[in-house]
């Protein structure tokens, strides 16, 4: 019995962390070499690998709510293209991005909310879109030319939005796993692992690109919102986790420095996750 439990834990670790991390390393390196502006595909590739392993019933075209993450990945790529490559006006670019984000949330949440009427799906999609777009806007206001950190740390600064999202996902994973859904918790872990692989390659190769975190925040926001809608995580817990995402862009804009930003995000995420774990911890034994 203990050997079976050990094997099960090892498989879970491989699917949640190891394989997504390795896949992200490989895809990030290849895409970064072929086209530097596409290295963000690394963490999306790593997440898709994790999704296919964790959600064994993954199908395309999608049939279940979880299947629509494959659509969200495609939408995230289109959102990046609309923001980074488009020569349209700023208002038009963000308008297209908002429409894409709203579509992603509608696909993810409607399969669960449709019994409450289409208006509930639209309300949730609009609310999540506004929050996600606010993060994207806020995280790209920093003027990198004002960075005064030493050369050893200055290359971290362009990647602080992704580092912040990775920390949030990693700290939220145990909360969601214990409080509502092991599946979504594992996907959060896979997202964090894939992000770590992407960041490692980007730091080594010095790849820098604007809006690389835009697809990531769409995926992470989808996981957080689904944790409430699909897995019955309390609304206030979901809001606390979602709000913690904004620590990085706010501190980054205030300090213009990577290290204080990362430390602030880590401390706040640990505190919030600890508090949320206390809120969702089941009364009965986990075993």
Spell out the key features of this protein.
single chain; 287 residues; mainly alpha; 12 helices; 0% strand; Transmembrane protein; transmembrane helix; transmembrane
Number of helices: 12
Sequence stretches where pLDDT stays below 50 over 5 or more residues: 143-150
End-to-end distance: 14 Å
Shape: globular
What is the CA-atom radius of gyration, in angstroms? 18 Å
The major sheet is characterized as: none
How much strand content do the residues show? under 5%
Mean pLDDT, to the nearest integer, reads: 84
Q: Based on the structure, what is the oligomeric state of the protein chains?
A: single chain
Q: How does this model look, in words?
A:
This protein is mainly α and 287 residues long. The protein has a domain of 199 residues. Helices cover 75% and strands 0% of the residues. It starts with a helix and ends in a 7-residue tail after the last helix. This is Transmembrane protein.
Give a short synopsis of this structure.
Helix content is 75%, strand content 0%.
Topology of helices and strands:
Elements lengths: L1 H33 L6 H14 L14 H16 L5 H24 L4 H22 L11 H4 L5 H20 L2 H24 L8 H16 L5 H10 L2 H9 L2 H23 L7
